[in-house]
Specification:
InterPro entries: Met_Synth_C/arc (IPR002629), UROD/MetE-like_sf (IPR038071). By secondary structure, the protein is an alpha/beta fold. It has 13 helices and 8 strands.
Amino acid sequence: MVPQLHQKPPFRAEHLGSLLRPKKLLDVKIAYEKGEVPEADLKAVEDKEITDVVATQKKLGYSAISDGEYRRHMFWGTFFPGLEGFEEITDFEVDIFRKYAPDISAFLEAGHKPGETVICTGKIKHVGSTYIDQFKYLTTQVPPNEVKNLKITLAAPNWYHFRYVEGKAYPKSVYSSDEEYFADIARAYQVELKILYDAGCRNVQFDDPNLAYFCSEKFLTGFKEDKLNLYTADDLFEKYIKLYNDIFTGLPVDLHVGVHLCRGNFVGSRHFSEGGYDRIAVKLFRELNAHTYYLEYDNERSGGFEPLKHLPPHKNVILGVVTSKFAALEDKEEMKKRVIKAAEFIAEGNGVPLETALNQVGVSPQCGFASHREGNAIDWDGMINKLKLVREIADDIWPNQP
């Protein structure tokens, strides 16, 4: 059977899930962590602010509404700490990390030890969703017929493998190989996706900067020089694609799954790596069984649109041509030209008319506005203006489409 293009979701105008937290929410979160207010007070504020930010997204004309990740500290949430077999640790030696991994390298170069981390200590098993309550509350904020559009973001399945040097991601007494380890990770995600699906979820976005790090020459050089590695960076990239494909095996046909690739999005609008998608495009677009790719394309850091020639006709790409890192507004007409240019490469690669290629395309900010709860170097009005701009670009290119 010929694969079909999955749409609505994704939509012509998208955002990447995380939105700036209001000061009241941040203040109460900090007070709760200090033991100054009860959990009930924190939840009440989270509920109110999520209700308000959902209303904001509706007003701006977005269909793939998120909760802004307002209940999370970081974009990846609590999936891994919630699994049996993982333990969150704060006391560790930096030698457990690949020091050339872009985010780890950035911390160390700045003289900082990476913060808390999560490490495998035993057999991995899903023992209860830490996302389901977030999703269920979000469903109360929209009519029943719009629940299918709601977006929930999930941690990359390779998150606590990529960052560790060979031999430190899991005990050899527990897993004899990456294949065994990844098999249990895949099973855990399949359970999570079923729980979310049964609650009405039909729109999932995996946030995975690690895949984009394979575009970084600095990372690739470090990986090649690391004598502990048992295989090449290309081999590891292929293992991660297989991990995703194992997770996606047997998905319901109406469950949309997308993967977001960026090059880091930390406090103060910090990015961690650079490099175009060229060296990973063929495997990423043709072998990873996602419906949609949310790609960073806001500046030269991300390279050109040429790799989009490899995007198959049954897959979507959401072009992150508007930066979420700074408030200065892009020129709308210039961004429209960029979207058309990207679609021309898709058309060339598939031998189809430009109009057909444009049907595979949408626009968004290049990343979230608050991957870390403190957020980027942009204020609330700046974020709203960016979201308005994305919606206007989409309306001009695809009139009357959500």
